[in-house]
Amino acid sequence: MILDITDASEQALNGLRDFTLIKWYVIPLLAIVLYIYFTEVKKARETGDWNAIYAGLTLFGMDFINETWNGWIFAATQYSAFWTTPGDTGLRVMVGWNIEIIFMFLIAGIVFYNSLPEDRDQKILGLPNRWFLAAFFAAFCVFVECILNIGGHLVWEYPWWNLSITGIWLIFLIGYFHFFAAVVIVIGMKDDKKKKLTIGVIYAIAIVMNMIGFGILGWLY
């Protein structure tokens, strides 16, 4: 059965990657993100600990992959992605990814890292603190996403990706938890070179996926 493209998808395609529609508030948001990163870089140069930067880059890279396969879903079905962001934005990059989401995920990993106790062995409710906080942050992100969905800013079209119990668990696991799990794994590595290599692999996957999608298959998402 072939389904017609959804209204939300049509709205999301309107103005997709159109830089004439960019909003001025994008500039101060960019400045805030740069300030956070340069502050963390300064700390890292003084201490030799680059984990905050690694955390930020890891989480954003995981989101980059997620947003790419979500766009592939739309391109393959010509119906809808799992999630779509059709509303007003400073710049829509993909049907489910806008500049506001990009800036948020660029700093989310740093926020997560700075929430972690210095003592790796400390327990929270009997659980390892890194994994407890990974689950907590993922659950909080799902809560925010549900609010956005209820407000019509983030549209879900598929019956398995919605406000049902099954849908919430899928969003938690596939949408967010593995972002924070990846951060825990990367910053937990002993070898700094392995951390850099892992982050490089994450971005290589996202870039290759987009090269295939845009360059070879000519998909618009």
Could you explain how this protein is built, in words?
With 221 residues, this protein is mainly alpha-helical. It is built from 7 helices and 6 strands. It has one domain (7-216). Helices cover 65% and strands 6% of the residues. It is globular and about 55 Å long. The strands form 3 sheets. It has a two-stranded antiparallel sheet. The chain has a two-stranded antiparallel ribbon with strand order 2-3. The protein starts with 6 loop residues before the first helix and ends in a 5-residue tail after the last helix. Strand 2 and strand 3 (97-98) form a beta hairpin.
Concise description?
Helix content is 65%, strand content 6%.
List keywords for this structure.
two-stranded antiparallel sheet; 221 residues; mainly alpha; single chain
Beta-strand percentage?
A: 5-15%
The number of distinct β-strands equals 6
What level of helicity do the residues show? Answer: 55-70%
Secondary-structure class: mainly alpha
How are the strands ordered across the major sheet? 1-6
How would you state the average pLDDT, rounded? 94
Number of helices: 7
Q: Biggest sheet, in brief?
A: 2 strands, antiparallel
Task: Indicate how many domains the architecture comprises.
Answer: 1
User: Which H/E pattern describes the elements?
Assistant: HHHEEEHEEHEHH
The geometry reads as: globular
Rounded Rg = 18 Å
